Amino acid sequence: MKLLLLLLFASTFGFSQTLYKSNVSENGMPIPGVTICVKNTSRCTTSDFDGNYAIKVNKGDELVLSYIGMTTKTIKITNLPPQENYEKVDRIVANDYAEKLKKPIDSVQISKPSGNFDLNSLFNLENEISKITRKEGFYHFKNKYEHHKLALEFNQEFSFSSPIRLPKYQDKFAQGRSQAGQILYQSPETNEIFSFGPNVSSLEYSGNNSEYYPQGNIVNQSFGNGNPLQLYNPNDFFQNTTDNKSSINAVIQSPKGNFLKMNFLYKTGNISIPTSRNNEIATFVKYFRNISQNSKIETLLSYNDFENNLSNSNFGINKIVFANAVTPIHFHNNLGSTLANGFQRSYSAFENNPYYLIDKNLDQNKSKTISFNFNHRYQKNVNSNVANTSFQSSEITNTNAQNPFFAGIVAPNYNERIEKFKSFSVSDVFSHRFNYKVAIESKIDFRLQERRLERIFFNGFASPNDFPNTSSIQNKLDVSQERFEVFYNLNGSYVFDNVFSNYEDLTLKLSSDLNYSSTVKGSLMTNFFASADIRRLFIDEISFSISQSFNQVEPSLQNNNLNFNSLQYQVSQFKQLQNNLELLTPKDAIPTNEATTNLGLMYNFDYRWNFKANYYYKNVENLYAPILTANEANWSPEVNYKQNGFEFEIERFSNFDSNFGYNLNLNLTTFRNEVTSLNNNQTQIAFAGFSDVNKNYIVGQPLGVIVGTGYLRDANHNVIIDEQGFPIEDSQPKVLGNPNPDFVVGFFNSFRYKKFTLNLSFDWSQGGEIWNGTQQTLNYYGKSETTGNQRNISNYIFEGVTQSGVSNTQAVSFYDANLPVEQNRWTRYGIDGVAEDAIEDATYFRLNSISLSYSNGVDYLKDKLNFTISFFVNNVFILSKSKSVFSNNSMFNSIETNGLEYFNAPMMRSFGSSLTIKF
């Protein structure tokens, strides 16, 4: 409390009661709201907006001046002016800031506050009062917080991204192959797919231009006009991307705490493929109201609209990346994608022009979602109740196609897929706390879900003009699924004090569910959870927990995983890939059972360091997997597995002073899993990838091991070499790698200096393998940097043994012009090579993100414009053993395909900024 020192300038004449006028101020700043009373009487008044006041007094009276947060001050009236001068006193009138009080004859001043705490500037009382009214001689003040308030927030975020970790290509050799001892150039008219031709320095343009080469057909230098070939880097095909996100929030709040919040967001951007774009509009309205002291309601209405013109719903992105990558370095795809006869302009009729695939793209996606939620909360004393009603409706429309003039397509097709999903739920949660030791909670939830899938598959076109949706064959799929569920949950907790007479707290929690579902076999499912958490074990800073849970989980009605369709095709059939099969949840579904045990330990040091360790063991039965047979796919509970893991976390929270602070979070996760059995006497189930290279559930192996072709080996694991001196490919597929890492470390740092904040995020993944099929195919086509550097290698001896068991001594040339091109080092094993050669270490260390932000802070007592501006970089740098692939960059944009790389969209490094303004 600081001492309120007042300096009064007043004159006293006589003893008769008269009107005394004065002023209260500090450093020339008036103080409104000070209470002034004549001691031992009921006569009181308050200072007005300008610090002025007037009160009737007698000589010798004492005035008591009081103000919240200040020491009360008493002032004695020793002199008054002659009474006759004050027989007629003008009324003091205030007209809401329009008219000030007359200049007082004396003033009251407040001394400077003691110390460094300036109470007056903290409360800024002059700005607190928004309105003054006068009624029956009294002045009434209205605080600004007694009005309705409008708050606005604008956010603008922009990011610019460029491709990184792209494959490296050879830039020396042209389209062509070896023939009769010579390496010859082959023109597009020959439909040559390989780039095992002559050195481009030996070729030039002729004067005879064509639709393939406007500069003139390519010929040997001795027949041309002296114009060297123009070369193109396939990596230049990819475009930089931009993403813009704009949003506005408006909140109207009443003095009682009720509020209405409205939000609108618009987002637009593109991916690295030319002409791609996506747009999203999202909006919501939220209303909160205090009905009474104990009762509150909240409603939320939201809408989302998303559109994407290149969705990869038919593997279109991967096909575009493939077509660009295999094109010879001297063929410019962007000069035109269509010939005069209407056919595709490509370097070979067996391959696609990426721009033609883009121009004819029909792989598009649109989705709309609307949802509504109503929530009522009641809380009084030890009881609380939450009633909730929610509704959601969504519609997802996908189209995809294989054009009649796409290379490798024998039967053109077009697909329209519409998925409609609705859900409605009503729930109630009641909780009662008997005391600080005992609490119980009961929840009941009624849910109704409906899913309708409509799909029309068009094929059998009489002519290209009938494409895409006028066909003689139309396969229709119309499936409706409904599910009614009732969930009942009862849980409670109990706290024991002084368990070991050392002030320990032991908290026991029990929870049990009984769930009904109309689509589950037997209809009923049970869940159970029990935990014990003891704090201040041995010392105050240590806590220990143990928990056991058992859950039965039913498969979702809505299953959009379409990427299992690729399992129908070999890698060599990649251009034919299409999504034509659906995974439908069976009517009498068997739930997936999960039993988990957790052991946790936490240590807090100096209230700034938290150390957490957790070990868990999980056993899962009836995990669902896709089962492909003939032209059908079944979503079936087939997999049983176990997993154990360890998680460790360090947190530090430090605010050294008001100007500087530092926080960190370091976490480590490691786990091991193993398929214990497969139902129906199976030993292996492929669930992602291709039919000849895929991820699998195999008994005795970790989840998702990579299976593919390898080299034939003898009992001593030696590679067996054929008569020509090359390793022999084994006809039986084998386990090649485990995509699961040994451990993953995340490291987050936050530095604060005054109004600046710097965040850095690192992650490190150690171990695991990835299949780099992209590299193998580029080798096959003669486009990779490896084939450019190694095609002249000769007299090379592969390590291994001959079929008779002796050490191999047969020397070979990687590319012998006297042999057909199909027999060189890379083409002899086919377009996907030997998968064993494509297995790479997935270890990486990444500076994931850097962000720097500035905020002008928040002043809760002033109407002040607040803003935050940030700059960030994502994927700053990556160190890894593989130079072009990244384990988190999954194939087909599906998490199931992590560990597989086949012409995935490139990884991006992003630079961006965001600005948030609040007022």
TrEMBL record:
It comes from the Bacteria. It holds the Pfam family CarbopepD_reg_2. InterPro entries: CarboxyPept-like_regulatory. The keyword Mitochondrion does not apply. Keywords: Signal. Residues 1-16 form the signal peptide. This is TonB-dependent receptor. It comes from Flavobacterium arsenatis.
